[in-house]
Amino acid sequence: MLALLPPAWVALYSLVPPPATALMLLRWAQGDGWQRQWVPLEAISPNLRLAVLAGEDNRFCEHYGFDWIELQNAIEDWRDGDTLRGASTVTMQSAKNLFLWPGRDWLRKALEVPFVFWLELIAGKRRILELYLNVAEWAPGVYGAEAAARHHFGVSAAELSPRQGALLAAVLPNPREWSAGKPGSYVSGRAATLQTRVRQLGPALDCARDRDG
Questions:
Q1: Which whole-number Å values give the CA distances from 39 to 10, 17, 161, 170, 211, in the listed order?
Q2: Distance of alpha carbon 187 from its chain centroid, rounded?
Q3: What is the maximal distance between C-alpha atoms in the chain?
Q4: I want to staple 114 with a disulfide (CB 3.0 to 4.6 A). Which of 6, 72, 168, 181 is the partner?
C-alpha cells in the first residue's frame, strides 16, 4: 500500500492545487504570515518562468527529473577541491516542497526519488513548473508567484516585466534574506545575469513558454 502513495498523491496534485506544504505549515507555526493565491501557469508571466529555469534548472525541458550532467559537474568540482554543491532540479525541489519536509538528511533524499519519477511521468513538465511556481517561498510568509509579484512589485504575476521576473528568480536560493523588491547589489547583478542567460538558452526553455508562441 505504501508503494501506491507516491503515484496517488502525485495524481491528485496533477488535478487540484495542493492546500499547503510542510514548509508553509512550519513557517506559520513559527509566526510567519501566509500570503498565497494559486494561479494557472498561463497567468504567470513567461518572464518569471524562464528566469526561474535559467537560475534553477537550465536543462529542465530536457531531463527526466534528474540532471545527470549537472550532478557529474558537481562531483568533478568537488574532486578538484570545491565545496560539494547541490544539483537539485526543479522536479526534485517540487517533490521536496510538495510531499516531504525541509532539510538535507539522507532519508528525505531517498524518499524524494519515487516522487520525482511519478511527477515526471504523471504530471509532466508544465504542471511541475506550475506547482513549483505556486508553492515556492519568495519572502517570509509569501508563497507562490502571484503573492510574490503583489508583495514585491504591486502587480499580478501575469504583469511581471523581464527585470521583475529576473529579480524574483534571483532571490530563490535565499528568499528570507534577499529581497526582490529592494534588491542589493548582489541580487541586482544576479538578476541581470539571469536575463542574459534566458536569451542565451533560447529554445532550450521552450517547454516553459506560452504554447501560442
A1: 19, 9, 17, 21, 17
A2: 17
A3: 51
A4: 6
CA 49, chain centre distance (Å): 9
Cβ-Cβ contacts under 8 Å for 90 (sequence gap 6 or more): 52, 53, 56, 57, 60, 128, 129, 132
Can you say how many angstroms the Cα of residue 148 is from the centroid of all Cα atoms in its chain? 13
Instruction: Show the CA angle centred on residue 80, arms to residues 105 and 170, nearest 5°.
Output: 60
Residues 6+ apart with CB under 8 A from 84: 74, 75, 78
Residue 171 C-alpha cell reads as 532571490
pLDDT digits (tens, 9 = 90+) for 78-111: 455 555 445 789 999 999 999 998 877 888 889 9
Q: Cα(5)–Cα(170) distance, rounded to whole angstroms?
A: 34
- How far is the CA of 23 from the CAs of 94, 106, 137, 175, in angstroms? 12, 18, 9, 13
Q: Which amino acid is at 106?
A: W
**Ranges in the chain, pLDDT < 70:** 1-2, 73-86, 212-213
Read off the pTM.
0.92
Q: How many CA atoms lie within 13 A of 51 on its CB side?
A: 26
